[in-house]
Hints:
This protein is α/β, with parallel strands linked by helices. It has 2 domains: 24-127 and 253-322, Bordetella uptake gene, domain 1 (D-Maltodextrin-Binding Protein, domain 2); 133-245, Periplasmic binding protein-like II (D-Maltodextrin-Binding Protein, domain 2, 3-Layer(aba) Sandwich), CATH 3.40.190. The chain has helices at residues 2-19, 48-64, 79-86, 100-108, 142-151, 167-179, 191-200, 214-218, 265-279, 282-292, 302-322; strands at residues 37-41, 68-72, 94-98, 118-126, 129-134, 157-162, 183-188, 205-209, 222-227, 254-260. The strands form 2 sheets. The chain has a 5-stranded mixed sheet with strand order 2-1-3-10-4, sandwiched between helices. A 5-stranded mixed sheet has the order 7-6-8-5-9, sandwiched between helices. Helix 2 links the parallel strand 1 (37-41) and strand 2. Helix 2 (48-64) crosses helix 9. The relative contact order is 0.18. The model is unreliable at 1-25 (pLDDT under 50).
Amino acid sequence: MKKFYLICLCAFLVLVFLSSDLVFAMEKPEGYPKRPIEFVIRSGPGSGAGMFAQAFAKDMKKALGVPIKFSYKPGAGGQIAVAYFLDQPADGHTLLVSSPTMVVNTVLGRAKYKLDDIIWLALGAHDIEAIHTRVDSKFQTLKDIQDYCKKNPKIALTIAGAGALSFDQMWVELLNKRANIRLKFVPFEKSSMRRASFQAGHTDLQSDELIDMEGLYKAGISKPLVIGYHKRVSKYPDVQTTVELGVDVTIGRWRGIVSKKGTPAPIVKYLEGILAEAFKSEPVQKYLVEDLGHERTKFMGRDKYTKLVKGQRAIFREMLKEIGFLR
């Protein structure tokens, strides 16, 4: 009888293991890692990308057994960070926090890399874009903006965002076209600079992820005016979405972690497993639930993430043609 129960237990454990969506070989490659892991971040400290990297790093540090350091390299639409990352050895010790702007740059011909030069290890967050307004502004809804633009056809409201010809600008220009409004995009390379401009009233509005504006929202300075999503977000239940207002603009910034092409396969597979485990950790889940405050994110391993990136390149190309950035 004891033997029977042991066999049943083993069979059950095998079924659980095989039915998991995330089955990875977690055996550490020989000699890896040899030194601290470097996270390269395409924006400055305090940004959403920085918070994302720090959430993952807490569990990864324990699993890898080495320190993790953060290198913030904002500027040039993320090109400075990507260039630095690609200049490092392909040995799994330098990882980059990725975003859709990297894909947009390949479509626009601004990138000095191809998508296949990067190993898209894992997607760990998928944020929601929003237009933010100051609480004392006369623009409190999308209709307020539409009415103003209709009455003032020669005036464009200014909106702060991240980088020229960036994912942020693509989102704003799509909103301009599909919501029949006129927002003049004012690019800033650092998140702190665009928030300061918006807070001081130098720009009328701000385009940003919900998480990046959390501080100003909690301080009672700003609030989301409209959220680019198909349903209301639990953290902001009173804020209207683009879809409910009849505006089909729901693209959102995702964040992932990538390594350089040429990284040895055992290290790639090991890192993919480490990231999958880190995603389930308390720091990452807390970041997703409390900081992002919505349920859009679903973890993607290397195969699914790579497929998403290549699929979105085609989608972004059509969007950029629609807004006149490409012929």
